[in-house]
Amino acid sequence: LQVLDYNGFIYYSDFALKFGWYNDKMYYDRGQAFEKLHKYKKARKEYKKAIKVGYYPATYALEQCKANERKWKKSR
User: What's 32-66 look like in SS3?
Assistant: First the structure.
């Protein structure tokens, strides 16, 4: 995900999802955006949605998210 405005991406993807447009990678990208914002619970939720709709690279991202959350909490 090469987006610098993560909040903007989340806003517009919320809009897309509301109107029924999505693809399996969108959930993964949303997970990436939430993770960049240190919103790990939301990131994990999005990765799980991506896995559920068949985007299996999110499986590794979910595990990495959990590890990143632990590191982030320790550094605070």
Answer: HHHHHCCCHHHHHHHHHHHHHCCCCHHHHHHHHHH
Per-residue pLDDT tens over the stretch 15-42: 998 998 878 899 999 999 999 999 999 9
Residues contacting residue 17 through CB under 8 Å, at least 6 positions apart: 26
Q: Is the pTM of this model over 0.85?
A: yes
Tokens of 33: 């955006």
- Distance of alpha carbon 62 from alpha carbon 68, whole angstroms: 10
Please give the helix or strand (H or E) that residue 21 lies within, else none.
none
- Does residue 32 contact residue 47 with C-beta atoms inside 8 Å? no
Spatial neighbors of 28 by CB under 8 A, at least 6 apart, are 46, 47, 50, 55, 57, 58, 61
